[in-house]
Specification:
The complex is a heterodimer.
Chain A: H1 3-23, H2 27-47
Helix pairs in contact in A: 1-2
Chain B: H1 2-24, H2 28-48, H3 52-76, H4 90-113, H5 133-142, H6 145-176, H7 178-181
Classes of the chains: A mainly alpha, B mainly alpha.
Amino acid sequence: MDIGWFVVLSAFIFGIGATGVLTRRNPLVVLLCLELMLNAGNLALLAF
Amino acid sequence: MLFEQIMFFLAALLAIAGALGVVVLRNPFYSVLALVSHLIALALLFLLLRAEFIAAAQIVVYAGAVMVLYVFVVAYIGGSDEPEKAEGGSLARVLGPLFGAALVVEITIAVVGTGLGLVDTRGAEIEPGFGSPAQIGELLLNKFLIPFEAASFLLLVAAVGAVVLARRRRGLEHLDEPEPVT
């Protein structure tokens, strides 16, 4: 697999997480979306 | 090779669906369950990247321990649905997805525009034991001992601080209760 696919996928997950952090009101769900963003960073790190 | 690609797209679809579920679903409990499926899909992706130990740790620590913690927290405090309309939230509700889409487009352009395609698709040359738990442990305890200990000390400080803060809050309630009596 090309590395670019993984990085683009992690970008998608990061964007979804950022959207969730900005739009959701419930602080617990905001934490969950922060976890999403952290996991996107993990995926991008492991892709290299 | 073909099997790898099929697995990648399946796991990627599952990961994106789980992430969307976390954001879209209104009940926090369902959000947590969507996040669990998302984490399992991410563990599949880690397996495709030949990071077996990280994948196992992802399953055990994230999908197991952390998510159970979240489920408990949801059961304690966050079980109720959030209100449909929050005042002043409409602006963020419109701008948030726009910002997220802009972020995705920006990162994608940055990734595609760089010379990332020039990187060999097979990755760097790795020796057979690379990424095994034994080697990770050896690196953590030899080469990266100081950062490892610093991180663990930081976590210890955070845990003790959380306990102290929670206890102080409860203790103040205890102190407040007898006061009206006297």
